[in-house]
Amino acid sequence: MEDRTTGDAPLAQEVESSDSVESGGSLNENSASEAAEEPEGVDRRQFPRFACEGRAQICLPFGGLLLNGRILDISESGCMVQASRITLERGTEIEVSFETKLYKFKVDGHIARLIPGKGVGVLFHNPSSRVIFQIRELISELQMREEAE
User: How many angstroms separate the CA atoms of 75 and 64, rounded?
Assistant: First the structure.
């Protein structure tokens, strides 16, 4: 099962808007404070998500805290990671390393959603052009697989 929404701008265009990223903001136009004002359960996703299998490691950018989890789904702007023991707060800056059958990559982000005892939704920040390419290739493969089913 996947949740599809329509996207506005592709990932590469989001990366070009680096003013907010350089000042500590995210690529997503909705800031954490704006998101907090919306009622729980409102879907603010800009891009479709696709079920994905793979491993993820979550750590803090300046070392320490390493959590292993499983990738549940991914989109151009973020992912959902199953990690039942995670206790980080929403908004916490993290680094996520992904490993699927075809790709390995690392991306900075922050915790956009915490589901206690289950996992976290991660919003990506300023991925490199190589990571953008890998994410798009992975999504393309997942989309073709989904359409074939």
Answer: 27
Total-model pTM: 0.69
Residue 10 forms part of a structural domain: no
Q: Are strands 119-125 and 78-82 parallel, antiparallel or unpaired?
A: antiparallel
Phi, psi of 96 (to 5 degrees): -120, 125
Q: Could you list the residue range(s) of the whole structural domain that residue 75 is in? A: 47-148
The predicted-structure confidence for 3-15, as pLDDT tens digits, reads as follows: 333 333 334 333 3
* CATH code, domain with 115: 2.40.10.220
In a domain, 101, yes or no: yes
Dihedral sign computed on CA atoms, order 109, 11, 131, 141: positive
